[in-house]
Amino acid sequence: MSSRSPSDDFRPRRPSPSSGGPRRPRRQTETNLAMGDQAPPAQESPAEAAPLPTFADLGLTPETLKAISDVGYEEPTPIQARTIPLMLAGKDVIAQAQTGTGKTAAYALPMLERIDREIRDPQALVLCPTRELAIQVAGAMHQLGRYHHATTLPIYGGQPIDRQLRALSHGVQIVVGTPGRIMDHMRRGTLDLSNVKMVALDEADEMLDMGFVEDIEFIFEAIPEERQTSLFSATIPPRITALARKYLHNPQRVSVSVSRVTVANTAQTAYELPGGNKFDGLTRILDVETPQSAIIFCRTKNETNELAERLGGAGYTAEAINGDLPQSTRDRVMRRFRDGQVDLLVATDVAARGLDIPDVSHVINYDIPTDPEAYVHRIGRTGRAGKTGEAITLVAPRERYTLRMIERVIGQQIIVKRLPTLADVAARRREAFKAALTGVLEEGNLGQELLIAESLSDQFDALDIAAAAIRMARGDVAQRLDEAAVTTLDGDAEGVEQGMTRLFIGAGRTAGIRPMDLVGAIANEAGIPGKSIGSIDIYDGFAFVEVPSADAQRVIQVMSNTNLRGKRVNVSIARPRDEMDGGPPPRRDRRR
User: Following DSSP, what letter does each residue of 526-586 receive, concatenated?
Assistant: First the structure.
């Protein structure tokens, strides 16, 4: 770590607000401007046209560079390249940048460099407008600060305060939180900000839009005046300028713009992964979408190698491309991808730059990009030369905020779909097989095969012969499906109405079961009104029916002793794997 001057360790100058009411902060400038007055322009950073340095050029310590390498970042974004040197030099900064341009690392890395490991009190404070952003920032701080051994705590409403109290009692060095919960701890006397020497306001314009200006002033009253303050905002309206005038000293101005680009020929969708099982969710999407050629984007180099290997083990033709590959290997991989020998190219953003591949049918964001420019760059790889394309993003529940942020920046809605179920995958495989079979029939030239069918026609029905041939042809697919090659996920249980329970019925279409049979049996034998019965799905060998949860056990008991179409059937609470047990259904009846 670079040498520190005595002024780096600031002493507390003010009492905590818990000991008294808010006091008006001393202004950092000699002129006495009112809140709404126009402040003089902040100093601009070097011209944006200058080439971007590497992380090693920014003056970061080996510990920080190692953490950056572990995370997989290969080069700084413009906001990072221009902000980090200023903050390492101790300057206050006003950074105008859209959410997702890499601004979190822009202030996080300098903060981590200046944390005193020996002091277990809060030394850095990050204020965020929402709990989602606070969680995201704290997670990034934890990853980037692993070799500095810095302790980071997110503080936000909606989480049990006892957990936060225990963490604060053990000592934390970086606090990331929303103004309301920060103030709550300050009033309780459980959060002392008197040793804070670095403050960052993230998405400052949104915080002011949400009415946090008085809360921010209250919090700043507890922080020493001799501090470094950075303000990050997508826009710099007059109220932001006024806030900067009050709390920043001679701020340096950095501005990075993001182009709003839309791709007319590309459909943009997202799939939410409730259980967080990203790989199995990806395989389901691949099986349903059946892309002709796809680029799958990952965040890190290591992840591209791991994902390509796992996809290969699951039967897909996939290869990785990243910055660690020698040029000869990159050329070989790209040649195989262009020639159709490889269907899936797993890449990082940096490795994908400069690639000219006109026939990419799908772009899949395995890791959602936190930089909207990266998102636009990625989806621009499909839908070229007048062709249509698909851009798919995998989203964990905690990443909903990032998805909304990307929508806001690109000015376009991304449609969120449910993850395909096992039945969806099975149905798509049947459709693909049927299409292939149709192609063979249309092509003709079945002389030898017709001789075999004719020799069997005296003993068996023609439809049975065709069905047996189909079973033999798709034996591998059917076996993989029966052996749960497609893993059940938490999302399979989604879709059941609140207050309803999904029941498994051990008989289906081949037994002549119809929706009216299930409704009639449940209504007559269990005494439940037909209008109270929910969705009914009927497959070849089984069925599902939703009933009120309060009546589920009674329905199971009654139905187990009732004949359906002259046959006793097994009835039980449905499990996610039940759709697998009866084989892939050819079609389904829905009743609402």
Answer: H---GGG---EEE-SS-EEEEEEGGGHHHHHHHHHTSEETTEE--EEE--TTHHHHT---S
| Domain termination residue (choose one: 202, 226, 255) | 255
H or E stretch covering 437: helix 422-443
Amino acid at the residue 316 = Y
Q: Report pLDDT for 13.
A: 34
Domain identity same for 207 and 101: yes
**Per-residue tokens: 565:** 């179409």
Q: What's residue 483's pLDDT?
A: 38
Report if residue 5 sits inside a domain.
Answer: no
Neighbours of 331 (CB within 10 A): 11
CA distance 22 to 222: 9
* pLDDT of the residue at 14: 35
Instruction: Return d(Cα 357, Cα 109) in angstroms, integer.
Output: 36
Take residue 551 and report the two structure tokens written for it. 């009546």
Q: Do 427 and 471 belong to one domain?
A: yes
The separation between the first and the last C-alpha atoms of the chain, rounded to the nearest angstrom, is: 65
How far, in Å, CA of 199 to CA of 179, rounded?
Answer: 13
**How many C-beta atoms surround the C-beta of residue 150 within 10 A?**
22
User: How many structural domains comprise the chain?
Assistant: 4
* Per-residue confidence (pLDDT) for residue 322, from 0 to 100: 82
pLDDT per residue over 271-299, tens digit each? 988 666 788 889 889 988 888 889 999 98
CATH number at residue 552: 3.30.70.330
In this structure, the answer to whether residues 67 and 141 fall within a common structural domain is yes
The number of CA neighbours under 13 Å toward the Cβ of 141 is 28
> Are 203 and 324 contained in the same domain?
no
Q: How far apart are alpha carbons 16 and 187 in whole angstroms?
A: 9
Same domain, 76 and 168: yes
Same domain, residue pair 230 and 143 = yes
Tell me if 20 is assigned to some domain.
no
Q: How far is CA 300 from CA 62, 306, 307, 354, 474, in A?
A: 19, 10, 11, 18, 37
Is the pTM for the entire model greater than 0.90? no
pLDDT value of position 374: 75
pLDDT score for 346:
94
- Which domain does 89 fall in, by range? 54-255
Reduced to 3 states, what is the DSSP secondary structure of residue 269? strand
What is the C-alpha radius of gyration for the chain, rounded to an integer number of angstroms? 30
Q: Residue 591 carries which DSSP code? A: E
As given in the structure block, the two tokens for residue 157 are 């409403």
- Burial of residue 592 (CB within 10 Å: 0-12, 13-18, 19+) is exposed
Contact between 205 and 9 under an 8 Å Cβ cutoff? The reply is no
Output 38-43 pairs: Cβ under 8 A, ≥24 positions apart. 38/238, 38/241, 39/241, 39/242, 39/244, 39/245, 41/253, 42/94, 42/244, 42/251, 42/252, 42/253, 43/250, 43/251, 43/252, 43/253
If asked whether residues 435 and 404 sit together in one domain, one would say: no
Among 417, 439, 466, the domain boundary falls at: 417
Under a CB-based contact definition with an 8 Å cutoff, are residues 573 and 521 in contact?
Answer: no
Structure tokens at 292: 């002709």
Residue numbers in the chain where pLDDT is lower than 70: 1-52, 98-100, 257-264, 274-276, 350-358, 373, 384-386, 473-498, 540, 575-592
The pLDDT, as a whole number, for residue 15 is 36
22 domain-assigned: no
